[in-house]
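One-letter codes give the sequence; the integers encode the fold. A sample entry reads:
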Amino acid sequence: MQKDENGFYVIANKYILFPEEINTSSAFFLFGAIGGIAASVQFYIKYKKALEGEKYKIYIDYLNGEYSFVK
């Protein structure tokens, strides 16, 4: 965490802070092992895009601890 005149912040994007929003289709798991491999490849690609995506300051509200997604 870092601090400036506006308060505390982290440098990240939405998908790094909330990785559960990167989900895969449950239809892949109906096909057994091949579907599992396809789902893991899809998850890896989405996660890699999230890490390489644009990162910006996300401020933390000191009263309730919520993230403030203001660019």
In short: The chain has a mean pLDDT of 77. Residues 2-68 form one domain. Helices lie at 14-17, 32-52. The beta strands are 2-4, 7-12, 56-60, 67-68.
